[in-house]
Amino acid sequence: MALKSFVEVHPDSHFPIQNLPYGVFKPEPDSEPRPGVAIGDYVLDLSVIASAGLFDGPYLRNSDCFTQPNLNKFSGLGRPAWKEARTTLQKLLSATEPILRDNESLREKALVPM
């Protein structure tokens, strides 16, 4: 069965759950830059996900890499941390996972319209 997200993603989108590109964005013009991933027409704010304690694997549990204004620290953690992050993000965005899908308050903070 194909991985499906609870976030509505247009079939022609370059950013389905299978392709979550990292980037740095500002939720508001005067806010600090922060790491995120694109999903459909949204950016998932990784600082919000990290602050909620949802990166709970061995490489990212105690890391502040997603509260930085760039991706340098995350990039420096290497392939095991990247894989852990991707697995966590795909799980959180999955249609079958209630943690983010069913938490309206967290979802509103974490999913920023592009």
UniProtKB/TrEMBL annotation:
Gene3D superfamilies tied to this protein: Fumarylacetoacetase, N-terminal domain (2.30.30.230)
GO molecular function: fumarylacetoacetase activity; metal ion binding
InterPro entries: Fumarylacetoacetase, Fumarylacetoacetase_N, Fumarylacetoacetase_N_sf
One GO term (biological process): L-tyrosine catabolic process
Lineage, uppermost ranks: Eukaryota, Viridiplantae, Streptophyta, Embryophyta, Tracheophyta
Family: Belongs to the FAH family.
Pathway: Amino-acid degradation; L-phenylalanine degradation; acetoacetate and fumarate from L-phenylalanine: step 6/6
SUPFAM superfamilies: Fumarylacetoacetate hydrolase, FAH, N-terminal domain
Transcription regulation recorded as keyword: no
Protein's UniProt name: Fumarylacetoacetase
Ranges for domain Fumarylacetoacetase N-terminal: 18-114
Entry cofactors: Mg(2+); Ca(2+)
Keywords: Calcium, Hydrolase, Magnesium, Metal-binding, Phenylalanine catabolism, Tyrosine catabolism
Catalysed transformations (reactions): 4-fumarylacetoacetate + H2O = acetoacetate + fumarate + H(+)
Superkingdom classification of source: Eukaryota
Entry EC no(s): 3.7.1.2
